[in-house]
C-alpha cells in the first residue's frame, strides 16, 4: 500500500531544490548530527573561474540569512513548505530539523530546548552563518527564544508564532485543561486516528475533513522517535518559580499570531509583547489558528517579508 504522506515528500524536496536549496548534514560530534536544507551556494565546492560568476557568488553570499525553526509535529521542510519558495529568492534560507526530527539525531541525553538551541547555533556557525533572523514556530519558538537569549551575536532579529518563553507547569496545566487532555504527550504524540484528529482540531481554525487513511499515513510517517520526543516534552516543562522573562538584546522582534490560536491564545501573545516591551510588535492574522503559517500562508508570508524588509532595507523587494 502506498503511504500518501510519504509519497508527498519527493514533491516537497523537488520544490525546495527548485527554490535553490539542497540537503546538507552537519556533524557536531560523533553521534550528534543536524540535517538542514541550505542554500546551494553555501555548500558548493565548485570554483568560479570568471569575474561575472564571482560577482554573482558574492551577491549570493551577501543575502541576509533566515533560519526557519519548526514545531513538534513535523520536520522542517514539511512545516515551512509554503515559506521556503517565497523567501529563497532574496534571502539565504536555512531549514534545520531539530533533534529526533528528519535526519537529525544525538546520543547526548540532554533533551532541553537550550540544548537544541546551542547545537543549532553551533551548526549554523559551521555553515558560516554569522548573523541571521530566526523564525520559530511553537516548540521551535521556545528554541528560538533560547537561541536569541544565549546567542545574541548570531540572532540579530526574531520572529515567533504560537509559542512561549518557556512552558511552565502552570501554563502547561491550564493548556491541558482548556484542550481537554491529560498531558502534552497525549496531544502532541497521538497514537490513534482519533488522537491525531483532536490535535489537528486544536491546531486549526478551519476544520477540514480528511479520510482516515490520510491520518493513518500521517501517524506512521511523522510520529517516529516517540521515546525521545516524549523525553523532550518532559524536559520542556519547568517550574513556574523558575520562569523568567529572557533578556533579549535584539532590537526588533515580531510576534506573528493566529487570532484563533487555541494552544497559545491571543491573550498569551499580548502578555509576551508587554513583557518584551517596545522592541516587540504583535501582528494578528484573522481566521487562523495555531498553524497560522499553513492556514493563511499568503498573509503570513506578506507579514514576514514586510518585517524582513524593515530590518533589511538593502534587500530589493521587486
Total individual domains: 1
Strand order of the largest sheet: 1-2-4-3-5-6-9-10
Q: Supply the CATH superfamily name.
A: Alpha/Beta hydrolase fold, catalytic domain
Shape: globular
Distance between the termini: 45 Å
Stretches where pLDDT is under 50 for at least 5 consecutive residues are 44-60
Computed Rg = 19 Å
Record field, number of beta strands:
10
Mean pLDDT: 92
- Give the number of helices: 14
User: What is the helix/strand order?
Assistant: HEEHEHHEHEHEEHHHHHEEHEHH
CATH topology: Rossmann fold
Based on the coordinates given, report the CATH architecture. Answer: 3-Layer(aba) Sandwich
Strand content: 15-25%
Q: What is the helix content?
A: 40-55%
SS-based structural class? Answer: alpha/beta
Q: Can you summarize the main beta sheet?
A: 8 strands, mixed
CATH class: Alpha Beta
Amino acid at each position: 500500500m502506498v503511504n500518501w504522506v510519504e509519497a508527498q515528500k519527493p514533491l516537497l524536496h523537488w520544490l525546495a531544490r527548485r527554490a535553490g536549496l539542497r540537503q546538507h548534514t552537519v556533524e557536531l560530534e560523533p553521534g550528534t548530527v543536524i540535517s538542514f536544507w541550505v542554500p546551494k551556494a553555501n555548500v558548493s565546492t565548485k570554483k568560479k573561474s570568471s569575474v561575472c560568476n564571482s560577482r554573482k557568488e558574492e551577491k549570493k553570499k551577501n543575502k541576509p540569512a533566515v533560519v526557519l525553526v519548526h514545531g513538534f509535529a513535523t520536520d522542517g521542510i514539511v512545516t515551512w513548505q509554503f515559506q521556503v519558495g517565497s523567501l529563497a529568492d532574496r534571502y539565504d534560507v536555512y531549514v534545520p530539523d531539530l533533534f529526533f526530527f528528519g535526519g537529525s539525531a544525538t546520543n547526548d541525553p540532554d533533551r532541553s530546548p537550550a540544548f537544541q538551541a546551542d547545537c543549532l547555533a553551533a551548526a549554523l556557525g559551521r555553515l558560516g552563518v554569522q548573523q541571521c533572523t530566526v523564525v520559530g514556530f511553537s516548540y521551535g519558538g521556545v528554541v528560538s527564544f533560547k537561541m536569541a537569549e544565549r546567542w545574541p551575536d548570531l540572532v540579530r532579529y526574531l520572529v515567533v508564532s504560537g509559542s512561549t518563553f518557556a512552558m511552565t507547569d502552570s501554563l502547561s496545566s491550564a493548556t491541558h485543561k482548556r484542550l481537554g487532555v491529560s498531558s502534552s504527550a497525549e496531544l502532541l504524540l497521538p497514537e490513534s486516528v482519533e488522537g491525531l484528529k483532536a490535535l489537528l482540531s486544536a491546531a486549526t481554525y478551519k476544520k477540514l475533513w480528511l479520510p482516515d487513511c490520510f491520518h493513518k499515513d500521517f501517524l506512521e510517517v511523522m510520529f517516529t522517535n516517540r521515546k525521545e520526543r516524549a523525553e523532550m516534552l518532559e524536559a520542556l516543562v519547568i517550574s513556574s518559580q523558575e520562569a523568567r522573562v529572557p533578556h533579549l538584546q535584539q532590537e526588533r522582534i515580531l510576534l506573528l499570531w493566529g487570532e484563533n490560536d487555541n494552544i497559545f491564545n491571543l491573550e498569551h501573545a499580548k502578555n509576551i509583547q508587554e513583557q518584551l516591551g517596545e522592541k516587540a510588535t504583535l501582528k494578528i492574522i484573522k481566521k487562523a489558528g495555531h498553524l497560522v503559517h499553513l492556514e493563511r500562508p499568503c498573509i503570513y508570508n506578506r507579514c514576514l517579508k514586510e518585517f524582513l524588509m524593515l530590518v533589511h532595507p538593502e534587500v530589493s523587494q521587486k
